[in-house]
Amino acid sequence: MSNYKAYCLDLDGTVYKGNTPIKEAVEFIHYLQVKGVEPFFVTNNSSMTQKQFQQKLAKMDINTETDHIVSSSIAAANYIEEHFPGKSVFMIGESGLQDALDSKQIMRTQDVAEVVVMGIDRQINYEKFAIACLSVRAGATFLSTNSDHAFPSERGFLPGNGAFTKLVEYSTGVDALFMGKPQPFMLEYIQKQFGYKKEEMVMIGDNYLTDVLTGINMGIHTVHVNSGVNRTEEVRQKVAQPTYFLESLSEWII
Ligand SMILES: [Mg+2]
User: Which residues cross the membrane (predicted)?
Assistant: First the structure.
């Protein structure tokens, strides 16, 4: 397997499972760091701030800089800064999205706005949906962090941001533009911010429809690891194949 400069790792199912670290992934990250390579962490989870992810990883013995943690919220804030500077923004979301917008000094309003951005919000209510729908009907740009329909919890699968986004899409007849995987915005952000060439980047993950397709959409090499949602046999049936298959990340060290 090639040597890369930017190892972009998915988090849940690749580096950890919920609050449990995946040993082989932690060792792989340490191995890269010993060689002087700081990996990137690329997650659709919009709810947490870079600082919160950093603290979560630190508990698993993974020490990293906040600017190497890229969530769909970071991608959304960058997209808004780049394409809609100075526009009013109505946000539905939690601290991860809030913090990402604040870090770019993006002004938010509680009223009908020119840009609507949605991320998971476990305090969502009718009024928030109403303002989002009124804005979109009035012509606002409609962005959403990620299209995940559901996410796992101790209680079972709970509704994800994709399900809430669907409500606004259904009511207004307007489709959202998603910032998370499988769209390549997070990888484009890393490429631009750190100045990598595509051949220097690799996307590593457990989920074909998000991780592997993100890398393929970006035009970079991809690695499927058999530690999470999709089994290797399943992924081998797909038309567009990842560059490499690994049982676990420990295989890469040897
Ligand atoms: Mg995953």
Answer: none
